[in-house]
Design brief:
about 190 residues; five-stranded parallel sheet; Rossmann fold
Length: about 190
């Protein structure tokens, strides 16, 4: 393997149905460098990664699988970025513990942390329209995901995704200091 420069990571955090995946695709289409899109949704919805029997008990129970799936997802990010891939990642950071795990795994990388906001009525409309999410997930997420960290940039995703992506890219290009993840890692927030 060659001495490849590590990739950059644009990490989008927001409630279920906030439009993170759509925004990732808009970012990929507009940014002047190649970025891979990576999401926990790839494991969860329609890609047949998880065993179909996960609603059974024992080893197949989602409660047993979930911590391992999440930790594996977190570990994939530094592997991809370490190989020189730029990443645009969408994730719902549900707890301060998940944020600490992400900071721990990504402490050595340039992470641009974006808060994706969307008003509750629009979240609930999208949730109903999608039909593949539990009703109430968006409301539950909205009450917590933005409550335990600041961001490098924040965006309202209820408007056109192309415009939101352009604003994120413009802000990402002109930043002059290390981001929130670097500050959290330096402060010891990346512990375990």
């Amino acid at each position: 393997m060659t001495n490849q420069r590590p990739g950059c990571i644009i990490l989008l955090n927001g409630a279920s149905s906030a439009g993170k995946s759509t925004l990732c695709r808009a970012l990929q289409a507009q940014i002047d460098e190649p970025f891979l899109q990576y999401s926990l949704d790839f494991f969860m919805f329609g890609h047949e990664v998880l065993p179909q029997r996960r609603h059974e008990g024992g080893a197949f129970a989602w409660q047993a699988l979930r911590p391992k799936v999440f930790e594996g997802f977190f570990a994939c990010l530094p592997a991809l970025a370490g190989a020189g891939n730029n990443l645009v990642v969408d994730f719902i950071v549900e707890t301060p513990q998940q944020l600490r795990r992400l900071v721990h795994h990504l402490a050595l990388f340039d992470v641009y942390y974006v808060g994706v906001h969307c008003p509750l009525p629009e979240l609930e409309r999208r949730e109903r329209q999608r039909g593949d999410r539990g009703i109430g997930d968006a409301r539950r997420d909205l009450e917590t995901v933005h409550s335990f960290s600041s961001y490098d940039f924040e965006i309202d995703s209820s408007r056109a995704p192309d415009l939101a992506a352009a604003r994120i890219i413009a802000a990402w290009k002109v930043r002059t200091s290390p981001g929130v993840f670097a500050a959290l890692a330096a402060s010891g927030t990346d512990e375990g």
